[in-house]
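Repro case for the chain-ordering regression, as requested:
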Amino acid sequence: NAGVMQNPRHLVRRRGQEARLRCSPMKGHSHVYWYRQLPEEGLKFMVYLQKENIIDESGMPKERFSAEFPKEGPSILRIQQVVRGDSAAYFCASSRSADNQPQHFGDGTRLSIL
Amino acid sequence: GIQVEQSPPDLILQEGANSTLRCNFSDSVNNLQWFHQNPWGQLINLFYIPSGTKQNGRLSATTVATERYSLLYISSSQTTDSGVYFCAVSETSGSRLTFGEGTQLTVNP
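-- result from build under test --
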């Protein structure tokens, strides 16, 4: 039973480029969460999605960041015109339902901005 | 939003020692999880424990929801236990996790 799959594991971008991070939830999970971990800090919530719907995006920066979870395929976190401060580890988690269920985390994508 | 405080922030042990990590939270929760982030950055799910007590090998955890705290016990520590231990909770009104700042554990041989 495969866990949460994130790719790529490492991503290097130059300032101004776009970064696309992918997350495939565990089988049977329809709830996806994205978290960001800045260097030497804890994880911070970004966005919560169900299939084709954004449920809570209160942790997303207002500009350059977007997320989707289409009917078919993985969830995508997209960062446009990346800046040095976007360098971080981005973790995806999934759960079977919203309440009273653990979230299972992927191994993360380490984004480095040159 | 809910506040999560972990203590101690840093802990250094000799191999074989026992330790207790604490997590205090400021409001009622419907989810509480303990994670171990290893030196490679992977988040390992240790316990899902919004209430009660669970044990898994040398690790055990207890959450007293009415008093808003959880404890993680590590017995007979090993060097591979080194890393950062995070507590994360979600409020009864939502499902997103709020993480504490973590406890940095170093186990020396």
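Ordering looks correct now. The interface with chain B takes residues 31, 33, 35, 41-45, 48, 56, 59, 89, 91, 93, 95, 98-105, 107-108, 110 of chain A (CB under 8 Å).
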